[in-house]
User: Which sequence fits this backbone?
């Protein structure tokens, strides 16, 4: 059982939750600064401008002119519920204004001295017998006294409260959606990973046919397809191993029994030097046949394992076909078979020369052996449809029945018509394994008459 601390899904949920919370805080801060901050700066600009207009209007006149202007502003009925004016004498005595009380000791100065002694501050004032938050601008006057211009912030505080509540509500909803989305993401990840783990458990229990259910085209689907292809390959190899084991147990019993029988018979009935020598010679030949059998099995295993892929080089498939054709000319002539080769140059593939040459040789050897005297064999290299390189061996002999073509590439399989001929049923299995090791395939087609055994290989990329 995976703990939450060890679960990568849980860590992703936590990471996305932290990231979502940080994003919400950042967005809220920007929004708050862009709304409330703008309102605060707008209020400061208004009261400073209003104070400048009052002083400009009363410039060069006595305090009486300024006092009259303050009273006019209070009586004009424009924005009177929010405007604040107060004119203080040099001794602090109020001369005119609409402040009931101003607790200066409780004032919090937000901006210091502006250079002319003026100060902007936020405080709580008393207006119409009730306390109210206010923003004030204190402007010292020449000859003593202070002009106070301000604004009641009750409406702004209400707006600020609405914005805070909206931000908190939005942040709460966003956080819930983030957590819900993260939990949903975790559930989806665990479900997809759970399918992979269940398939692995079935395979561990011995069910090699189990596969990961795949849907969609996301990363998990691609991973599932890759794993399923790997499992297909593993199942194929395991089936091949079981088939080889059964075939070896069956096919080796006869030659080993024959060797034992010959040696036993020689010891019992021919206990002479010539008789024992002849029996030993026959036993050595039979053992050599078994050694060659095991060598061919190892050749198949080496091709299927991909061990030789690191030895791949750029090869001209036409040259390989020509060389093998020339090597088999004498054997074909001795068997009464006509052999022709049509192999153009510059047909390049990437591969192992020895493996490909051995595969072509196996096809030619089979064609000469099964076609029989009086028949013809044609070896042709060239391009095949689909942009593949092809090397084909076509004989006009008896061919292979359609029902058996899928079986003859299995190890040790031999058709009824070929059991009287020498061989062990590994030739086409080696050719098929070699083609697969090079990213290609072996095709067996009806030659009408005869058989066309075609090795298809991907062309080498142009350099």
Assistant:
């Amino acid at each position: 059982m995976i703990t939450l601390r060890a679960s990568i899904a849980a860590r992703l949920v936590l990471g996305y939750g932290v990231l979502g919370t940080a994003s919400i805080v950042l967005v809220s801060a920007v929004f708050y600064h862009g709304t409330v901050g703008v309102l605060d700066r707008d209020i400061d600009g208004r009261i400073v401008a209003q104070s400048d207009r009052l002083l400009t209007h009363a410039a060069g006149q006595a305090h009486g002119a300024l006092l009259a202007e303050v009273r006019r502003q209070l009586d004009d009925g424009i924005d009177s519920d929010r405007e604040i004016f107060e004119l203080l004498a040099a001794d602090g005595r109020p001369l005119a204004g609409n402040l009931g009380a101003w607790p200066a000791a409780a004032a919090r100065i937000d901006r210091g001295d502006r250079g002319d002694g003026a100060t902007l501050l936020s405080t709580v004032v008393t207006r119409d017998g009730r306390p109210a938050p206010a923003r004030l601008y204190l402007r010292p006057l020449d000859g003593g006294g202070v002009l106070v211009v301000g604004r009641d912030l009750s409406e702004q505080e209400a707006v600020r409260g609405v914005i805070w509540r909206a931000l908190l509500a939005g942040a709460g909803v966003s956080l819930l959606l983030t957590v819900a989305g993260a939990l949903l993401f975790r559930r989806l990840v665990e479900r997809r990973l759970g399918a992979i783990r269940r398939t692995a458990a079935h395979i561990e229990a011995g069910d090699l046919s189990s596969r990961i259910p795949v849907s969609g085209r996301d990363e998990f689907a691609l991973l599932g397809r890759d794993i399923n292809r790997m499992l297909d390959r593993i199942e194929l190899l395991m089936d091949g191993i079981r088939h080889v084991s059964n075939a070896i147990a069956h096919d080796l019993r006869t030659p080993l029994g024959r060797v034992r029988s010959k040696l036993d018979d020689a010891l019992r009935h021919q206990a002479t030097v010539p008789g024992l020598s002849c029996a030993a010679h026959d036993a050595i030949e039979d053992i050599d046949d078994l050694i060659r059998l095991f060598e061919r099995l190892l050749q198949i295993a080496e091709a299927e394992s991909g061990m030789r892929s690191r030895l791949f080089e750029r090869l001209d498939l036409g040259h390989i076909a020509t060389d093998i054709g020339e090597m088999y000319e004498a054997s074909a002539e001795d068997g009464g078979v006509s052999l022709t080769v049509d192999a153009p140059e510059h047909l390049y593939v990437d591969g192992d020369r020895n493996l490909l040459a051995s595969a072509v040789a196996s096809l030619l050897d089979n064609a000469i052996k099964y076609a029989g005297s009086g028949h013809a064999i044609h070896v042709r290299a060239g391009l095949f449809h689909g942009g593949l390189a092809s090397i084909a061996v076509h004989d006009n002999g008896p061919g292979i029945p359609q029902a058996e073509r899928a079986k003859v590439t299995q190890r040790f399989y031999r058709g009824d018509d070929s059991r009287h001929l020498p061989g062990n049923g590994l030739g086409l299995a080696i050719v098929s394994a070699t083609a697969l090791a090079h990213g290609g395939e072996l095709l067996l087609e009806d030659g009408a008459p005869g058989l066309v055994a075609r090795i298809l290989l991907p062309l080498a990329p142009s350099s």
User: Anything to note?
Assistant: The first strand starts at residue 83 and ends at 88. Residues 187 and 348 are 51 Å apart (CA to CA). The chain has a mean pLDDT of 78. Residues 309-458 form a domain with the Heat Shock Protein 90 fold (CATH 3.30.565.10).
